[in-house]
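Bumping my old thread because nobody answered last time. Still need a sequence for this structure:
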């Protein structure tokens, strides 16, 4: 082919190419390629920046939460300490390798009487761009913030503490006293203004001691205190001994531990100088008085160690002559007999003896509710009360204050004279920290275990309306959190009715559930030195959200209380 032909063919092909619309896609794609690459690159850079920001947000949230917990647990932290702590926590949590120039700052606002403490934390940083730098954006900045508020709630803590006899061993009581006083010191640090923190102290054994100053309180039921032993009360299910109507001064004591659960005393058992006696006194102030001793519990287990505050007096009814002479007869007279013959025949009734309960010789059927006399006040009550009638024993319903005959079930609290009545009394909700600690120091171990009565009074102490030890009214401008801390070193052994742990536990389990249903957070501690006892299921289940601790050494008591303080601190954080 000639050169001319080749040139013609090239010109022809070039002309056709220029006129061919199918070739336009190439230049259009070339023009659009740069912005498409720019958008894709920007998306990649923004994704990296957003990932760095999300990572910062997560680290910031965690850091602020941890700082707020520290500040709640240590109310004396300064603003600078809070900022330093935030920086430390954030640095430990944030590890995004793409970020640079990261800074963190915090604004701390202390709590006031009307507002909570707040931390507002802010963070900023940047990443280097890979694509957008071509467009003149060498870096992308980002920032985030996080807020935590705490201490906006007020606290009320009922410390329900085992004072039973077993607490005297292995250093348990001294360890409890130290840990409880330390907790008071720690809780008091949360109080910025009056009313922020209140604490009550409820020492318990089988009974609790409400203090003798309440002897005239209308909410105390004296019917059992003044009543005769229930095993002898024929108006209920009791019965008198077979030799009852022939028992007089110098007679043998009609009571035995095996038959009645008690024996005889030479005067009311609650009086100073009372002594056991095998015969009824025949002289002195208490001649003819049949006075029961302290109950051994052999017949009524729940009465173990309980005194009866009175005696049976002997009332003599002389016999009467019905008829004399040879034709004498008893006729229709009951309990009559005849003796002798002929003109010496005599038909008569014998001298009989009856016994009325209480030292004043009157029957215990007064029209009004029996109240303690001056003599009983002076000679007896040490302040102890026992469980309320069922089902008020698992309630914090307000006791009646109406003076009159109390019919069972009674809402009132039963006064009881118990051999192991605790010296330490219940202290209602208070912010007098030294008084509370003095009450802790007054605790002395004695008696058997009834966790239920301690828990019931702990609940009573939290109520602002329903109890004889009502807590101060709550301010509607504040949020309140109620807590019970229950510590016991053993299984339940005695309450008003039982000495069976399972029976007492059944009552306590129902009470625990009601307490928690009322919005109270319950912490429980079982002190089980050397793991001698099984785990107390009722204590374990009584705790809120797993807040149960088992400690096996007295030295662990302080740690157990510190754990509770930590939990309370965390619960105070609002968000």
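Sorry it took so long. Here it is:
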């Amino acid at each position: 082919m000639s050169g001319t032909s080749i040139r013609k063919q090239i010109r022809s092909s070039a002309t056709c190419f220029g006129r061919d619309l199918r070739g336009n896609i190439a230049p259009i794609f070339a023009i659009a390629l740069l912005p498409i690459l720019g958008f894709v690159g920007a998306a990649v850079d923004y994704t990296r920046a957003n990932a760095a920001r999300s990572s910062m947000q997560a680290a910031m949230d965690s850091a602020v939460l941890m700082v707020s917990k520290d500040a709640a647990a240590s109310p004396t932290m300064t603003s600078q300490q809070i900022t330093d702590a935030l920086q430390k926590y954030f640095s430990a949590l944030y590890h995004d390798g793409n970020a640079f120039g990261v800074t963190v700052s915090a604004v701390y606002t202390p709590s006031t009487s009307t507002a909570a403490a707040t931390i507002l934390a802010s963070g900023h940083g940047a990443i280097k761009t890979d694509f957008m730098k071509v467009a003149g954006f060498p870096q992308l900045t980002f920032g985030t913030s996080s807020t935590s508020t705490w201490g906006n709630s007020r606290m009320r803590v009922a410390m329900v503490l085992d004072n039973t006899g077993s607490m005297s061993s292995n250093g348990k009581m001294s360890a409890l006293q130290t840990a409880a006083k330390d907790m008071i010191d720690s809780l008091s640090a949360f109080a910025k203004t009056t009313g922020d923190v209140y604490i009550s102290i409820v020492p318990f054994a089988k009974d609790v001691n409400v203090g003798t100053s309440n002897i005239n309180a209308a909410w105390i039921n004296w019917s059992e205190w003044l009543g005769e032993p229930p095993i002898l009360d024929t108006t209920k299910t009791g019965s008198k001994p077979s030799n009852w109507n022939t028992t007089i001064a110098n007679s043998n004591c009609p009571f035995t531990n095996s038959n009645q659960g008690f024996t005889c005393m030479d005067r009311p058992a609650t009086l100073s100088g009372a002594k056991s006696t095998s015969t009824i006194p025949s002289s002195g102030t208490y001649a003819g008085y049949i006075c029961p001793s302290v109950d051994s519990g052999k017949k009524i287990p729940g009465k173990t160690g309980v005194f009866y505050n009175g005696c049976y007096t002997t009332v003599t009814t002389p016999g009467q002559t019905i008829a004399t002479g040879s034709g004498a007869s008893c006729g229709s007279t009951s309990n009559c007999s005849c003796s002798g013959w002929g003109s010496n025949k005599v038909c008569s009734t014998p001298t009989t003896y009856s016994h009325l309960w209480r030292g004043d010789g009157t029957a215990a059927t007064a029209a009004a509710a029996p109240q303690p006399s001056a003599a009983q006040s002076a000679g007896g009550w040490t302040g102890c009360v026992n469980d309320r009638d069922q089902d008020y024993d698992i309630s914090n319903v307000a006791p009646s204050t109406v003076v009159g005959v109390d019919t069972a079930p009674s809402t009132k609290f039963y006064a009881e004279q118990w051999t192991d009545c605790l010296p330490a009394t219940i202290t209602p909700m208070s912010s007098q920290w030294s008084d509370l600690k003095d009450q802790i120091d007054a605790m002395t171990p004695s008696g058997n275990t009834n966790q239920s009565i301690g828990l019931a009074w702990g609940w009573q102490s939290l109520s602002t309306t329903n109890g004889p030890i009502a807590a101060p009214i709550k301010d509607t401008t504040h949020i309140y959190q109620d807590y019970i801390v229950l510590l016991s070193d053993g299984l339940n052994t005695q309450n008003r009715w039982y000495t069976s742990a399972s029976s007492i536990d059944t009552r306590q389990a129902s009470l625990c559930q009601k307490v928690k249903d009322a919005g109270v957070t319950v912490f429980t501690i079982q002190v089980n030195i050397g793991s001698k006892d099984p785990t107390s299921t009722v204590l374990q289940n009584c705790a809120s959200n797993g807040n149960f601790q088992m400690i096996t050494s007295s030295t662990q008591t302080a740690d157990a209380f510190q754990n509770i303080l930590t939990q309370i601190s965390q619960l105070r954080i609002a968000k």
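The radius of gyration is 42 Å. Let me know if any region looks off to you.
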